[in-house]
Amino acid sequence: MHDSQQQAAPEKTVRANDVDLAVQTFGDPAAPAILLISGAEGTMDWWEDDFTDRLAASGRYVIRYDTRDTGRSTTFPVGAPPYTQDDLLADALGVLDAHGLAAAHIVGISMGGGLAQRLGVAHPDRILSLTLISTSPGGPGGPDNPDLPPMSEALATMFAEPSPGPDWTDRDAVIAYFLAGEHAFSGTIPVDEDRVRRTAGRAFDRSPVPAAASNHWMIEGGEPIRARLGEITAPTLVLHGTADPLFPYGHAEALAREIPGASLVPLPGVGHQMPPYQVWDTVIQAIVEHTAR
Q1: Which candidate in 105, 240, 251, 272 is catalytic?
Q2: Residues 129-171: pLDDT tens digits?
Q3: 214 among known catalytic residues
Q4: Residue 244 annotated as catalytic
């Protein structure tokens, strides 16, 4: 084991796009840079320290950040986010700018993977490579993407009859909300409840306004991007769980087919979730090899 304290820089705040973004880096700033972009509602904490440490120890400069409305970044009134996906794109580029990076390797999960695709199309000069985890070229199947497999019946029912959110001021209730979500979106690998509770608790403790993260579900998504995936020039790696109930594996196959030269690595038993530690060996090796090109 290496000393993670040597790997991690203290958390700091950068100003970008008229918001404050909380950022933390790991590893040598002279090494190839990887920007990690979280999914909806996810603070940077979900990119766990052990995961970022291992990437850094593999010779990468790893940057994670709280997207706006999460963690210690700027929050907006709950239910009325005055921004769009384009602002989230500008925030990601602002984090690169704040670190003096003309370009970086982008690793995005779920909503962050959608943002990564948009970056690849709109800002190819800023992208050294893309890694797309648990994401989709077009969202859950439907009239706009009839060829993409639909979400599981259990999830469809859950979305059709949503339960009220937690009391966002109650730490235990918020942890229970994230734990229930992990179970709903997981695959066949058992959920490590202690690990999820620990991460959710840390995210809560770092979030002055935990409820603001729900704004991510309300923002304008922008023009559909699927028709432009063929324009992506960055080397692209697709990592996807074989048991994803939201974006079944066919979504990953479509991404890999429609992005020129993309490679696809299945994650057996993984659902729609941050890669569980059981597959970290596969995920970290794949990212390190991909970002070495």
Answers
A1: 272
A2: 999 999 999 988 777 899 999 999 999 999 999 888 899 999 9
A3: no
A4: yes
